[in-house]
């Protein structure tokens, strides 16, 4: 019974020494001296702020993309015990002792190091030789720009890691397709493809380019499967559903989960509250929530309210009035009604309060029980402080002459009667009997007499002149079928009015209200709002030029660089600069690949086959992955209207580098046919690779920031006049 114990239990394993060696070398090049410099390096000043906000659970929005990458950086800070207390205000600022520099930079460095063995495996899965795969990995290992970008608290190395992982996972899945479909390993690599794609998109929206490429390749492969007569309809359906689950459903669910965790972590009011809706702000702890918590939910006749414009761009603003009137004549000679000004004011103020009045009654207090205002009801809006009625009429607005002027009516005893009736239309209603609700309802006010809609036109135009205190114009816009957000308003602050007397009511308007009811916004409502393009993509002003910004055309020939850090006293500095030989070789490889592909296609059209069919398929598949990866990660930048930097090119560069050994192996296998040519070709490759290593060593002082170089040595590194190498004046 215990006979099996007579022999020792032996476990055997195959170890790819190439992979192990490459991984170790990748870790050494990325982790060596990781804490140096112990100062803020370039965009660490940007990402560090968000790490601090995560540590303090304070809400923020970042225009660079989804939150997964930021959460990974914050994870490094959390593991290092970072408390979030550091002022990220300038590049070069020395880190205080409470900053776990090594921990904050660790995850990007690990991601950058693991890209090296991933490149090796991708070439192997594309069925190229181990020598070609080793060459691709070594080129990434010695690429100065990738080393620099992965050694600091930045996101590009993490993005490239997930991109390469997604490509490798799909290739492994595809290679298992023929022999072991629906096996455990088949499912593992298929599911890992979807997970890696979701993570890439979750780090930066740039990951979407590679995700779309893999979806296109998967679609093409499935199209070929449809023509396979050996597969039954049921089998094809199962393959289709499996791919849909792994490559579409799982990435979507994971993308949502990133935001769910992000919003769960950041529950406190933060610096970006003002670009969110009132409902979103009220769901956060502190800030607006302290004011709005427990307000009455249903707006009733007699309610005292502030009305915030839903657009909130470029600034949030509230419907406002004050005692000043429109000038009798404007600067261009047009006349006005000389009525009391109504504007949209970008600050909280007592003059933002309005009272909802029933036109058929005189009281300005809420009855008992309250009578709620519903969709379609007619109301009058009475300015709380001046008690004048919101009014519009057939008089041109001051800045928008094709729209009607909006004012608070003053009776001058002339032939200009009051026109102050407004119909409440709840745009996001579920039924025509919906009650007007605080924060939640988006309302537009339609003027009964003229059908004009109350609109904050100043949000999409110019501000009023000095006589209007540079506040934003409000107009009556002709009734439109659409619902532009500048025409929509929501109640932000709300109380039930109790004082009929004006003086008592003014005291009431100045005092805050606090009750015991809270309102929560659902996750999907928050997620939908965060996805609004104007909030996620225009938080920062992209019109401003940066000293180190560049165009996409500058990247191919590396005519630009970025100074990441400069030592305050010595000549030590760090630059984002690539390996010149590698970049030039990558461009040459892309050119050779394109020319050879066109040549082969023309010849094949004439039924002349220069290379075997299996070599042609290998050539095409490698081009689809490597050349396609370069194209989808580079060409879209020509269509983007945003500030661009050299590091945006790194994902595309990675794919282009993978193309170098593909072309070299192809040339060696099919064009160098004699022994002499093969020997000469091998010697050239050795010489070329030696030059790659030489350039890596030459520029390593500005890759790692040490040792410090003299002014003469720095001048010698300026291989191009367009490079901005910093040299201190003696």
TrEMBL record:
Gene Ontology CC: endoplasmic reticulum membrane
Short name of any one Pfam family annotated for the protein: PMT
Topology within the bilayer: Multi-pass membrane protein
EC number: 2.4.1.109
Entry's Gene Ontology molecular function annotations: dolichyl-phosphate-mannose-protein mannosyltransferase activity
Entry similarity comment: Belongs to the glycosyltransferase 39 family.
Stated name of the protein: Protein O-mannosyl-transferase 1
Species whose genome carries this gene: Oxyruncus cristatus (sharpbill)
């Amino acid at each position: 019974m215990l006979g099996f114990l007579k022999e020792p239990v032996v476990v055997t394993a195959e170890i790819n020494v190439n992979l192990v060696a490459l991984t170790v070398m990748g870790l050494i090049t990325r982790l060596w001296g990781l804490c140096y410099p112990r100062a803020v390096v370039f965009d660490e000043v940007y990402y560090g702020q968000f790490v601090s906000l995560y540590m303090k659970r304070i809400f923020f929005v970042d225009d660079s993309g989804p939150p997964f990458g930021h959460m990974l950086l914050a994870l490094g800070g959390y593991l290092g015990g970072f408390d979030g207390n550091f002022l990220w205000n300038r590049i070069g600022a020395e880190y205080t002792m409470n900053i776990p520099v090594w921990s904050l930079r660790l995850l990007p460095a690990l991601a950058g190091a693991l890209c090296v063995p991933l490149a090796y495996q991708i070439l192997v899965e594309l069925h190229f030789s181990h020598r070609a795969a080793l060459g691709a990995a070594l080129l990434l290992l010695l690429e100065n720009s990738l080393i620099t970008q992965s050694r600091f608290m930045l996101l590009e190395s993490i993005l490239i890691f997930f991109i390469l992982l997604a490509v490798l996972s799909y290739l492994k899945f595809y290679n298992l397709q023929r022999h072991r479909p629906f096996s455990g390993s088949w499912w593992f690599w298929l599911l890992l493809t979807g997970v890696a794609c979701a993570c890439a998109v979750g780090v930066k929206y740039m990951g979407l380019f590679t995700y779309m490429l893999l979806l296109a390749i998967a679609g093409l492969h499935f199209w070929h499967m449809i023509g396979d007569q050996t597969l039954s309809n049921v089998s094809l359906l199962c393959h289709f559903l499996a791919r849909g689950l792994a490559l579409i459903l799982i990435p979507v669910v994971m993308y949502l989960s990133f935001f769910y965790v992000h919003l769960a972590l950041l529950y406190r009011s933060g610096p970006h509250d003002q670009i969110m809706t009132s409902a979103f702000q009220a769901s956060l702890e502190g800030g607006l929530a302290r004011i709005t918590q427990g307000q009455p939910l249903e707006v009733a006749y007699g309610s005292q309210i502030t009305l915030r414009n839903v657009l909130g761009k470029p600034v949030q603003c509230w419907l406002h009035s004050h005692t000043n009137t429109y000038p009798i004549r404007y600067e261009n000679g047009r006349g006005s009604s000389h009525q009391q000004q109504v504007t949209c004011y970008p600050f909280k103020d007592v003059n933002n309060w309005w009272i909802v009045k029933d036109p058929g009654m005189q009281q300005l207090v809420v009855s008992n029980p309250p009578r709620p205002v519903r969709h379609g009801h007619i109301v009058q809006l009475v300015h709380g402080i001046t008690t004048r009625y919101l009014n519009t009429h057939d008089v041109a607005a001051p800045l928008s002459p094709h729209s009607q002027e909006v004012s608070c009516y003053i009776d001058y005893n002339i032939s200009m009667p009051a026109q102050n009736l407004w119909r409440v239309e709840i745009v996001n209603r579920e039924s025509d009997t919906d009650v007007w609700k605080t924060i939640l309802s988006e309302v537009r006010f339609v003027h009964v007499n003229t059908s004009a809609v109350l609109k904050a036109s100043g949000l999409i135009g110019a501000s009023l002149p000095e006589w209007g205190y540079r506040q934003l114009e409000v107009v009556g816009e002709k009734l439109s079928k659409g619902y532009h957000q500048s025409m929509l308003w929501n109640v932000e602050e709300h109380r039930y009015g109790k004082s009929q007397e004006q003086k008592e009511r003014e005291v009431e308007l100045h005092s805050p209200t606090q009750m015991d009811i809270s309102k929560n916004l659902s996750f999907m409502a928050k997620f939908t709002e965060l996805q609004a393009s104007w909030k996620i993509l225009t938080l920062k002003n992209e019109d401003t030029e940066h000293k180190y910004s560049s165009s996409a055309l500058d990247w191919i020939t590396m005519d630009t660089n970025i100074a990441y850090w400069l030592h305050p006293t010595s000549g030590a500095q760090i630059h984002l600069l690539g390996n010149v030989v590698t970049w030039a070789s990558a461009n040459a490889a892309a050119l050779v690949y394109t020319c050879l592909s066109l040549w082969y296609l023309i010849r094949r059209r004439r039924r002349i086959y220069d290379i075997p069919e299996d070599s042609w398929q290998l050539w095409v598949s490698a081009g689809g992955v490597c050349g396609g990866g370069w194209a989808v990660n580079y060409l879209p930048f020509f269509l983007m209207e945003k500030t661009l930097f050299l590091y945006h090119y790194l994902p595309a560069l990675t794919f282009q580098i993978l193309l170098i050994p593909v072309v070299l192996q192809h040339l060696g296998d099919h064009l160098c046919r004699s022994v002499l040519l093969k020997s000469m070709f091998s010697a050239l490759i050795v010489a070329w690779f030696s030059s790659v290593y030489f350039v890596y060593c030459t520029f390593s002082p500005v890759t790692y920031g040490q040792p410090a170089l003299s002014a003469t040595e720095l001048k010698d590194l300026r291989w191009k006049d367009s490079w901005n190498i910093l040299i201190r004046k003696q």
